[in-house]
Amino acid sequence: MLTLKEVSLRKGKRTYLDEVSLTAEAGRITAIVGTRSAGRTELVRVIMGLIAADEGTVELEDFELDFGDRQNFGYLPAERGGYPNMRVIDQIVYLARLHGITLGAAERNALTLLSHLDLADRGYAPLKNLSGAEIARVDIAATLAADPDVVVLDDAFAGLDAASLRLVMSLLRAHASSGVPVILATDDWEAAQTFADDVIVLGQGKVTASGSVEKLLGDPRYRVETTDTEAAESALASRTGISDVSVSRGEGSVVSFRADDAKTAAAAVAELKSVKNFESVRPTLAEQYKEAL
Amino acid sequence: MARKDKGANDESPEPLVSKGTAGDGIDDLGVPLDDDIEVTEDDTVENGSAEPDEVPAEPDDDTVANGSAEPDDVPVELAEDGPDPDELPETGLVSEFVDVGNRQAAWLVSNRESTTAMRSPYFLVTAGVIILGVLAAIITGIVADAQKDSGTPTMAMVGVGEQAQMYEQQLGVKITDAKDASAAEKLVREGKVDAAFIQDPTGQAQPTIIALDEQPEALLEKLAPKTEATLLKTPAVEGTVATPLLWGMVAFALLVIATLGTSLYQNLRLEKRNRITEIIAATVPPRASASGRITGMLSLVIVHIVVAAVIVELGLSLSGKTSLAFAMLPGLGWFALTLLLTAWSVFALLVWASTVVGSKARTTFVSIVGVITVAGFFAPVILGPTGMTAKVLSWTPFTSPLGIAGRFFAGQAEWWEGLIAAGIALLLAVIVHALASGAYVRSVLSGGGRGGRTVKMSKRAQKVGAGSVSAKKDDAEASDDAKSDDADDAQPAAASAKESAESGSAAGEDAKSADEPRDEK
Questions:
Q1: What are the domain boundaries of chain A?
Q2: CA B276/CA A83 separation, integer angstroms
Q3: Hey, what CATH class is A218-292 in?
Q4: Between A and B, how many residue pairs show a Cβ–Cβ distance under 8 A?
Q5: B225 cis-preceded (ω within 30 degrees of 0)
Q6: What is the band of B372 on the pLDDT scale with cuts at 50, 70, 90?
């Protein structure tokens, strides 16, 4: 478990991080999402020890990390690139060996990862001969080749096409399942909602929301399209287990409400007359938080 | 994290294996056991992302297929021979680690740096040019010597007058009449004659033959009895050889330093641009990384120097110029040493230049380094090996490689002057290296101007030195293990794939502060 406690980072009058506290659980994928200039990269750099925070601590299993304690953290910075003229496998092996892994293990892991990422036939090609999506997968392989204790990916989904994204995320999921905290910093809200277990919403250097994706998405809201909105509104408002009933008079006549559970909602709607459509709606993370940020 | 500490292996550049769990992921034939990974991965993804809260009460079909539940018809003996799926790493990755101290980190970076440079076409072209150039110089020297020996020798004689023609016929030597002994000596010094025949004015002593700086063999062979000539100058290497040799050394030094320096600088900029610097800084101490780059390039300078020196000495020995080969040795030796130290300074300056913010400032920095280097190599050869200026240049960094070599070739330098030149060059290199490393560390750990304090290297040094943290971690690990054991006991034996994943993560959590969890993984 990686924990940040009240981390602040400032330069002059500008505050990059303001008392940021968060926890990335082992075995789970934690996404740090936020708009541009929310402080994601700074936060990642503080986690990696590349910047010393003005205040606060970074702890792994309740031990405060100091410079030099992150040797087996797998780190992928944003706006990255590799050595264009170096062979893919050499690149992965070299970066893995810096973590202290033996040559044999690094080579074996490189081949395993390339195979998982559908790059087995590209291992001996120079990096410059690969496509953008392939290079993005190589970056992931290089990050994981030392079998890191913590994985930190800044701008995690950059350069990945849909197929690559599935491959990469299955690999990261497997890695997380082996008992490692996987941290993804991204501005891709949709991908974060799809692939992460926990999400930390960062805005203007502050944590504005955090928790599991389920928790952040909240309970669904139910929408009933009917010809008699007033009757529907009063009927729903009078029922137990139904709350927050409102009428929206945009396109058509829609009554929306919250319910304790789906059964209660369905039972309430079944008693209404002239119902045209009934659906449950859950706003995405981006819809809930992005505009507010 | 204990691996990060400076361990006992810090002395050895080759890392020693300190721990490993390779066996977890490899079968007896050394083949990685990848088969199980895909199944585990699929299960994990399905269960982990879609429905985290849902835990099936009974093992599903996949779990049975994976082998976590044994079919009834498999004999127990056979079942025991198979790998226990719980012990296999879920990622299929092997964890086999070594302690990486500063030296090992520097060695890894240095190795990559030198390998990259050696694979570069520029390096190969430079090596080719140097080898061909040295060979061409040796062959040219042999041909020139052959042409020189084929001509009629010339000799000045005092007061021979009209008898000169008679001597020419008798000796087969071209005779030049000189008024007196000093005029004859002047003719020798000006190179107009190969030697001068000086008779003793009293007539009691033997006549002497004087030559400039080498024995006029062709002439002496024609005289009977054959005598030795007295040399007016006694340089280690004659000027006709020393001057082109020095220009060749200038070209060699420039080629080597320009090629390797360019490669070093381009690599540094590439790493900075592509953020590889950050990845490296997150794993190895930046100071070790900076040192590794410089030592990597210095190892290639040594390769170049050794190759060139061997070809020169071997070529001269094979072509019968053993005495010249020996005469050149001190000059070449001090040249090699001071060039290596100068290269150290230049490479350190380039590391420093690569950290400067702003392309204009960087270009200016690199240009200054280039100008100093080129001027330093040319100046001593242009100004010559004699005089106070030459002496000062031979001791001064950047000018010392060619300056000290030129003075040794001319026989102008004392043996200890080489030591002084090398000492001063070494001192400068160490200072520049320290400054460049500091600049590199600041550049890497200042967060690219995004605020915060620059990470202090001393923190780690204190921590590693004290070793208190690792001790604390060991204690904590013991208590965590105890907690882990309790947690494991509380868990039901049969679990779904999701439960396996969670128990795996609990085990990982327990020991992330130490190295043991890798074994569990």
A1: 2-214, 218-292
A2: 9
A3: alpha beta
A4: 281
A5: yes
A6: very high
Contact A109 B469 (CB under 8 A): no
- Does 3.40.50.300 match the CATH number of domain A2-214? yes
B423-482 residue pLDDT tens: 999 999 999 999 999 999 888 876 443 334 444 443 443 443 344 334 434 444 433 433
Tens-digit pLDDT profile for residues B401-413: 999 999 998 888 8
pLDDT at A226: 86
**In angstroms, what separates the C-alpha of A116 from chain B's closest C-alpha?**
9
In the numeric block, which tokens belong to residue B10? Answer: 């810090």
What are the structure tokens assigned to B70, written together? 């044994």
Instruction: Give contacts of B116 with chain A, Cβ < 8 Å.
Output: 83, 85-86
Neighbours of A268 (CB within 10 A): 23
Across the interface, of A26, A50, A81, the residue whose CB is closest to B281 is A50
pLDDT value at B82 more than 70? no
Q: Which of A61, A95, A113 sits opposite B512 (nearest CB)?
A: A61
Report CB contact under 8 Å: B451, A10. Answer: yes
Residue in A226, A277, A259 with CA at minimum distance from that of residue A267 = A259
Residue A15's DSSP bridge partners are: A10
User: Are B480 and A61 within 8 A, CB to CB?
Assistant: yes
- On whether any CB of chain A is under 8 Å from the CB of B502, the answer is yes
ipTM of the complex: 0.83
Instruction: Tell me, yes or no, if B447 comes closer than 8 A to chain A by beta carbon.
Output: yes
Bridge partners (DSSP) of residue A199 are: A31, A211
Residues 299-328 of B with CB under 8 A from A: none
Which residue does chain B place closest to A141, by CA atoms?
A: B93
Distance from CA of A195 to the nearest CA of B (A): 7
Chain B positions touching A109 (Cβ under 8 A) are 93-94
Among A80, A102, A155, which would you mutate to test the B interface (most chain B Cβ atoms within 10 Å of its Cβ)? A102
* Region for B448 from its dihedrals, namely left if φ exceeds 0, alpha if ψ lies in -120 to 50, beta otherwise: left
HSE-CB at B460 with a 13 A cutoff on CA atoms is 26
Alpha helices (H) in B181-285, listed in sequence order: 181-189, 217-220, 239-273, 276-283
Residues pairing with B174 in the sheet: B154
The reply to whether the predicted model has a pTM over 0.90 is no
User: How many residues would you count in chain A?
Assistant: 293
Q: What average pLDDT does the segment A198-213 reach?
A: 90
Could you give the CA distance from residue A56 to residue A4 in angstroms, rounded to a whole number? 7
Question: What DSSP state is assigned to residue B454?
Answer: P
Of chain A, the percentage scoring pLDDT greater than 70 comes to: 98
Q: Which residue of chain A is at minimal alpha-carbon distance from B95? A: A147
Please, what is the angle between helix B388-395 and helix B359-383, to 10°?
140
Chain B partners of A198 at a C-beta cutoff of 8 Å? none
Question: Across the interface, do B279 and A77 touch by the CB < 8 Å criterion?
Answer: yes
Alpha helices in chain A (DSSP H): 40-47, 88-97, 103-116, 132-144, 162-177, 189-195, 213-217, 229-238, 262-270, 285
The residues with which A59 forms a beta bridge, in sequence order, are: A3, A64
Residues of B with Cβ-Cβ distance to A212 under 8 angstroms? 52
Helix, coil or strand: residue B507: helix
The letter for the amino acid at A256 is S
Q: Coil, helix or strand for A196?
A: coil
Q: Do B282 and A48 count as a contact with CB atoms less than 8 A apart?
A: yes
